[in-house]
Amino acid sequence: MEIFRSIVSILSAVAIPALLLFFLVYGAFRRVKVYEVAVEGAKEGFNIAVRIIPYLVLMLVSIAIFRASGAMDVFIALVRPLTDLVGIPAEVLPMAIMRPLSGSGSLGIMTETMQAYGTDSFIGVLVSTLYGSTETTFYVLAVYFGAVGIRNTRHALPTGLLADFIAFLAAVFFVGLVL
Amino acid sequence: MLNHIWLALIVIGILTAAGRDIYDVSQNTYGNGVPWMVQIESPGSLDTYGKAIDATVRIPRRQVLAHFPDYSGEADVLIPARVTLSHAGDGVAVLDVTGDVPEKFRVMAAALGGERTLTARLRQSADVWKAEIDPVSLVYLKKVTNAAFDIAGVAVQIAIGLIGIMALWLGVMKVAEKAGLITHLARFVRPITVRLFPDIPADHPAVGSMIMNISANMLGLGNAATPFGLKAMEELDELNTKKGVATDSMVTFLALNTSCITLIPATAIAVRAAAGSSDPAIIIGTSFLASLTATIFAVTISKLLARVKMFRWDRSEAE
Fold first, then answer.
1. What's the N-to-C CA distance of chain A in angstroms?
2. What is the pLDDT of residues B80-106, one digit of tens each?
3. Are A46 and A66 part of one and the same domain?
4. Pick from A123, A100, A97: which is nearest to A112 by CA?
5. Which residues in chain A have Cβ-Cβ distances shorter than 8 Å to B14?
6. Does the beta-carbon distance from A4 to B224 stay under 8 Å?
7. Where along chain B do its domains lie?
C-alpha cells in the first residue's frame, strides 16, 4: 500500500511536465511548427470554454435551488427506508445524494460528516471513499454534452446514476472489509 | 431525460421553499411581532448617549422559549452587541450572531440581509429593555433567490477559469496530433477500444483524446482531464450522424468518465489530512476498488441500456 501510494504520487507529479516535454519535443522532431500549431489548438480551447457557459449556468442554478430550498433534506427522508434495506448507513445518505449533483456541496458534506463522526471511523472513511471514487455526474454530463450541443442525452443519465449507486454499494462493502 | 430532471429540480425546489415559508408564517417560527425582553450588560456605564459602545445583550432563557419553542439550551443566551442609546431611553443594538447563539438568529440575520449581524430597536421599560427585530418571513424563498443568483456568477467563473487550462492543453494536443502521436496512441490501445467503441474507426483521434482524458482522471489531474474530455466529445461528434443526439460511444465514454477508476483520490486525502486523520491515505485502496467495480458496471450498463427501446439509437431524435 505504501509503495503503491508513493509510486502514484510521484507519477501524478511528473505526469504533466513529462507530457509537455514529450509532446512538444516529439512534435519538433517531426518538423511540426510547434508554436503556430499550439496557438491554433489554444484558440479552440477558448471557444469550447465559452460555449459551455449557458449549460453550466442553467444546470448549476437548478441544483442550487434544489439545495437552498431544503428539498434535499425532504428527499433524503423519503429515500431513507430504501437505503436502509440495502445497508447504506443513514449518516452518509446526504453525501450519496449530493455527490452526483454538486462537487463543492459534497466536499462540504464530506468535511462536516468527518467532523461529526471522526475521520477514521467507519462513517468517516466511507464518506471520503465515496467522495474519492465517484464524479459529479450532472456537472460532467452538462459540460460535456453542452460542449457539442447534445440535447437528447439518451441513456447517459440513467447510466451515470446507476454507476454512482453501484459505487456507493461497493464503497460500503470494501470499507467494511478494511475496517 | 436531462430536461425533465432539470425542470423537476427547479419546480420541487421552489415548491418546497414556498411550503416551508407558509408553514413558518402559520407557526410564527421566528416570533415575529413579539418583543424581546432583554438586559443590556456593559463593563462601563450605559450613559454614553449617542455613542456606540460594546455590550452584551442577555436574553433570559424563558424569553428565548417564548419565541423559539424548540430551543433546547439550559442557560440564558448572551449575544455581543454594539449598542447606541439616546437620552430618551431608546436606542439600537447591532447583535453579532456569529458566536454561540441559537441557529435561528443566524437564519434571521441572513433573511434580513445582514451578513452576521442582526439589528434590534431598543426601548427602556423599568429595568429591562424591550428589543424589537424586523419581522422575518419567506426565509427559504429568499435563500433560493440568493442561491440562484450566486451560483449563476460562480458558473461563469468556473467556465472562465477553464479557458486558460483549455487553451494550454488543446494547444499541446494539437502539436501531438499533427506529429501523429495521437494516432499511435489510439493504435496501441486498439484491442480494448474496438470493443468499447465499436462505431469509432480504430485510429480516429477521438480515441487518443479519450485515453488522455481517462489517464488524467485516474491520476487525479482534473484540470488536465477536462480539456481532453471536451476535445474527445468534439471528435466523437464529428462521427455523429444525428447532431444533437448522444451516440452510443459518447454515452460509454461518459460512463467511463463519471465512474472513472481512481488511482489517487487527491482531494479526499487532502481533506482527511487537514481534518486530523491518523491515516489519510487509507481510502486509496477502498476508492480504487469501489471505482473499479463502478467502472465495470458503468460500461456494462451503458451497453445494456443502449438496447432498451426508449433509448435506442434508431428511435432517438434531437428533441
1. 15
2. 888 888 877 788 888 888 888 888 888
3. no
4. A123
5. 65, 69
6. no
7. 31-136, 180-315
